[in-house]
Design goal:
This is Type 1 glutamine amidotransferase domain-containing protein. InterPro entries: Class_I_gatase-like, DJ-1/PfpI, Prot/Nucl_acid_deglycase. Keywords: Glutamine amidotransferase, Lyase, Stress response. It is a single chain. β7 and β8 form a beta hairpin. The chain has a six-stranded mixed β-sheet with strand order 2-1-3-4-8-7. The chain contains eight helices and eight strands. The protein is α/β, with parallel strands linked by helices and about 230 residues long. About 50% of the residues are buried.
Length: about 230
């Protein structure tokens, strides 16, 4: 039986109430998708509200517009996957072996408090599945509680887009919270690379997180290794 991966993407197209655009950081989806596809895994995409997924325009420029993202953009079938996504209510957690939260700043608004995503994540985790995220995707784990009411991330080693990287990206004043600080407040053991924007992956049991867009492939490879029993 093929392994099945559930990708989570944002529906948020702007920073809060501003006109500044955001959305899915496309390479964080495509790089992982390529890795999972090479292993023969079945894949599906879900978003908090279902429907259309906006793309962050910054992720469509060099150097992020690489062969992987160009191939996705040129493939009508792949683009159709982002034009009409299912919502959490359409997903049965028991059908999946791993969940992978993608990033882009939009997720800071629509991931943390989505009860449907939390329910999927909790069910998958408690049945022994792999929970993973890259970059801002870890915002989807901020408020997920287990059936014992503890935070899933409490006591877990984790990484994600750092506050230093937010400042260097020039958006620290535009975002609704400091995700790194919020993770620490929930008892997570936050780690990051010595230098910003370097690939960095942290694995703690069945929890796999990557720090930034450049960590997507390595994050997916670690998920594959765990699912293959390595």
């Amino acid at each position: 039986m093929n392994r099945r991966i559930l990708h989570v993407v944002t529906n948020t197209a702007h920073f809060g109430n501003s006109k500044q655009p955001t959305g899915l950081w496309l390479s964080e989806l495509t790089h992982a998708w390529d890795v999972f596809a090479a292993s023969g895994y079945e894949q599906r995409i879900v978003s908090p509200k279902g429907g259309r997924v906006p793309l962050d325009p910054r992720a469509l420029k060099w150097p992020m517009r690489d062969a992987s993202t160009r191939a996705w953009l040129a493939d009508p079938a792949k683009m159709a996957l982002l034009s009409s996504t299912p919502s959490p209510a359409d997903i049965s957690p028991g059908d999946y072996d791993a969940i992978y939260f993608t990033g882009g700043h939009g997720v800071m608004w629509d991931f943390p408090d989505n009860e449907g995503l939390q329910a999927i994540t909790r069910a998958l985790w408690e049945k022994g599945g792999v929970v993973s995220a890259v970059c801002h995707g870890y915002c989807g784990l901020l408020n997920t509680r287990l059936t014992n009411d503890s935070f899933l991330v409490r006591g877990q080693k984790i990484t994600g887009f750092s506050w230093t990287e937010e400042r260097l990206a020039g958006v620290a004043r535009e975002i609704p919270y400091n995700a790194e600080a919020q993770m620490k407040a929930r008892g997570a053991i936050y780690e990051k690379a010595r230098l910003p924007f370097m690939s960095h992956v942290v694995t703690d049991g069945r929890l796999v997180t990557g720090q930034n867009p450049f960590s997507a492939r390595a994050t997916a490879r670690k998920v594959v290794a765990l699912l293959n029993g390595a």
